[in-house]
Amino acid sequence: MPTETITVKTTAPATRSETWHYYTEAEHVINWNFAGKGWHCPKATNDLREGGKFEIVMAEKEGTMKMELEGTYTKIEPETHIEYTLENGRYVKVDFTDADGGITVEVTFDPAESMENDEQRQHWQAILDNFRKYVSSVEA
User: Fold this and answer.
1) Cβ(97)–Cβ(104) under 8 Å?
2) Domain 6-139, what fold?
3) In the chain, where are the structural domains located?
4) What's the CA gap between 119 and 134, in Å, rounded?
5) pLDDT tens, position by position, for the chain (140 residues)?
6) Rounded to the nearest 5°, which phi and psi values hold at 119?
């Protein structure tokens, strides 16, 4: 069992309601939930309620590799807090707080044992950076 959680965050230049919408709705998730330029998110489904499930597929654009992320929501506080457990038992929480210039989205998660923590932090931060860029483009 991991002894340390990892936290990443970004500030989205939007209102709380808009930030929540862009972060949780599958139609938006497919536009930002991937870690690099050579990747995309061809599929996202989301049943945003306690006990609801989600699935996100991240894939290399060349089609050589893909990752599926599935989980179940354990706690939802609309526009402020989400908790879920990934299919492999890892815990994740997401908090939405007011900040200068928008809403800070902070994700704290149990790291996978199969990858270095710094590498996981970089991947999850890259995904949040994509989220911020997406929100900026939608809001422009």
Assistant:
1) yes
2) Alpha-D-Glucose-1,6-Bisphosphate; Chain A, domain 4 (3.30.530)
3) 6-139
4) 23
5) 446 899 999 999 999 999 999 999 999 999 999 988 899 999 999 999 999 999 999 999 998 899 999 999 999 999 999 999 999 999 999 999 999 999 999 999 999 988 899 999 999 999 999 999 999 999 76
6) -65, -40
Q: Which of 75, 74, 69 is nearest to 44 (CA)?
A: 69
Number of H helices, E strands in the chain: 3, 7
pTM: 0.93
In contact, 4 and 111? CB cutoff 8 Å: yes
**Alpha-carbon span 67 to 120, nearest angstrom:** 14
The CA-based dihedral angle spanning residues 79, 14, 9, 75, taken in that order and rounded to the nearest 10 degrees = 10
Q: Which amino acid is at 84?
A: Y
Tell me if 86 sits within 8 A of 78, measured CB to CB.
no
